[in-house]
Amino acid sequence: MRKKRTPNVKKHLRLSFTLLLSGLVCTLAMAAPLELETEQGVLVGEQSGTVASFKSIPFAVPPIGDLRWKEPKAAPAWRGKRLATEFSPQCSQEPYPLGSMFTRPSPPSSEDCLYLNVWTANVDAEKPAAVMVWIHGGALTRGTGGSAFYDGTKLAEKGVVLVTINYRLGPFGYLAHSELTQESEHSSSGNYGTLDQIEALKWVQNNIASFGGDPSNVTIFGESAGSWSVNHLTASPLAAGLFQRAIGQSGAKFDPMPLLLSESDSVPSAQATGERFAEHLEAKEIAQLRRLSSDEILDGFATFESQSLSQPNVDGWVFPDHIAKIYRDGKQNDVSLLIGSNADEGTNLMAAPKDANSAHKMFEQMGGEFTDQLLAVYNFEKDFTSASYAMFRDMIFTWNMTRWATLASDRNKDTWLYYFTFVPPAPMEGKLGAYHAAEIRYVFNNESTTFDGSKATRSEAKLGDMLSDYWVNFAKTGVPSSEKGTAWPRYDRVDMSYMTIDKKFEVKRNLLQRELNIVNAIMARRWQD
Predict the structure, then answer these.
(1) Positions of the chain with pLDDT under 50
(2) Using N-to-C axis directions, what is the helix angle for 192-207 and 225-235, rounded to 10°?
(3) Of the residues 188, 250, 436, 447, which is catalytic?
(4) Choosing from 345, 439, 447, 460, which is the catalytic residue?
(5) Catalytic residue flag (residue 345)
(6) Catalytic residue at 224?
(7) Known active-site residue 482
(8) According to the 3-state scheme, what is the secondary structure of 108-144?
(9) pTM above 0.70, yes or no
(10) Terminus of the chain with fewer CB atoms < 10 Å: N or C?
(11) Alpha carbon of residue 213 to chain centroid
(12) CA distance 181 to 190
């Protein structure tokens, strides 16, 4: 029998809070209580130095019981004072597998998880500050806004109000089903995680002024599945006007999405996948599924063969069409974009191929009729391991980010592209290269919060200070800049300028053009099948 995740929520929250903030400069011992009156009620947060933090603020009614797999509803006001010094439980999820560099002591999980956190140094200021809303990654199946890597203290010190959010994950966030579609007044189901993110942004519009933030100057940003989410929100008409700028770090979706109601290109409808999941759990109707515990749902998800259960779908409401087609037709939300990816995205995501034969099969699977060209452009015969990692990087990350930049810049010239090549010395003495998620610590200027507890180097401290400048100034002004750094030209499909982010920031052109030309042909073929 599975051990319950939250037998004592308060006890585990205190333990989780201690673990998450281990190694940070701002500790509870240094913090003082701070009361703040908001539209919802009085919050009791903490002041440490110039920065105040307020954690576990509800932005939606808990999606539990009959509200499981329902569109989120705005959280009501409360009476009295609400303590806001500890992070809420993370949304229900399976922990990362042992051996993953992302594995951490697990905070408590719960379906009652729709809370956000705010860091601000601007509560009493006369002029409102730009707002940055972070959307965590984790493949839309894992993660939390309460990670120490996302602590907003340093960004708040640089003059923005920083918000991190939770949203429903995996089968709780993306299950579609005919009964759920019938329940919805919008004839939609399955996009609950995205709707949670939109509800959080509505909360920002209605409440962030109380924290010294400017609701008319909001930037959303995220990495991996957080960047997928940024990509989703820029394409959803429901998010129009809720933010003015967007930063995407290593994640976008420009391949075909599942359709809610019908099969497409041999991909089952999202409803059909959800109904098979219900059968997998021996539930004949949604009422039975709602009576199952979150652990039983997660156990079923872990043994279910289709991961499309944790993806958004084209439902005609949240997503009127495939994101790729929305961008192709210029119907995306008109926001400024700062987007890019890393040079070694696959080293901590994909196991090295066992031998040349298994690597060749992966190229055949990904390349199809373009396999020979793919093998040649990645110099497979010279080093099949490096070729495999590079091909994975470009198929999953580099192509999607450059495609996003190209289509966005066709409509809106305020688009900037980057390529992160800095190699952190830890973990593994730099052997992972510029791995997936390597840039997050520097974006938040939290370079001392390392994966393995090692001490940050001087070059890392310098990078964190400069990279966070670019991100913060983009949020403030719409242009990524740093007084200490290089001027960053806009991206367009003719000039193709981008910034390499390393010990030195350098402007270059035509990122991996030979490789991406082949990948582009492969991706275009997917729309013809």
Answers:
(1) 1-29, 529
(2) 70
(3) 436
(4) 345
(5) yes
(6) yes
(7) no
(8) CEECCCCEEEEEECCCCCCCCEEEEEEECCCCCCCCC
(9) yes
(10) N
(11) 22
(12) 8
